[in-house]
MOSC domain-containing protein (Kaistia terrae), 250 residues
Amino acid sequence: MAQIASLYRYPVKGFSPEKLDTAALRAGYRFDSDRIYAVENGPSGFDPAAPAYKPKVRFLCLMKNARLAQLQTRFDDATHVWSIKGHGEPFAADLSTIEGREATEAFLAEFMGEERRGPLKVLSAPGHAFTDVGKPYISFINLASVAAVANWVGQPVDPLRFRANIYLDGMEPWQELELVGREATIGEARVRFAKRTQRCAATNVSPDTAERDLDIPGTLLRKLDHTDCGIYADVIEGGRIGAGAAMRLD
């Protein structure tokens, strides 16, 4: 039986994963505090008054900016203070204030150097998430599929390269790819699997070294004739989930 191995959120798009013990899923919503901020890299056209999906390349992201993995960041839900280590003195600022955003933009502008395409700007909008697909999905990775990739490339592959919300144990490799259209109970919640996840160059970046040391999309394409690894789902009934919770397919 499949079960949750671990849970993660990514409060600021492109930056550190944050491990969770539990999460409260809500019908029709993404993970709480997941990708609620992004950092615009030059003008993106994003309007906080009318928030809409924009491609990830408009923002700082691992696909384009591997150096982001050098930073260790942490977000506080109660205060919206975002803390950064890994570049000079430790930094912290309240992203909910103009002053905090301006300080963050200045810090990151110095860190990003020549990878800046224009002014950096911290963005958010009530209820909006800067996801790669523009829909309130939650994302799953099957750890057995990651193990299969590791076997192909001949070295360990950190599952966090795939930046999912829910990591599953107890499945066959690539079993997740056949779940589109099916429903499942997971912990106290129910989900409907909606879409396979196509992998990009972000997965090539080591979370430990910030180096592009693998070609995961290329490996998937050579071995499977596609670049899919993982799956998105809609939450159709809310409830609490946690590590160790079983997933039962209908």
Q: What stands out?
A: The two ends are 13 Å apart (CA to CA).
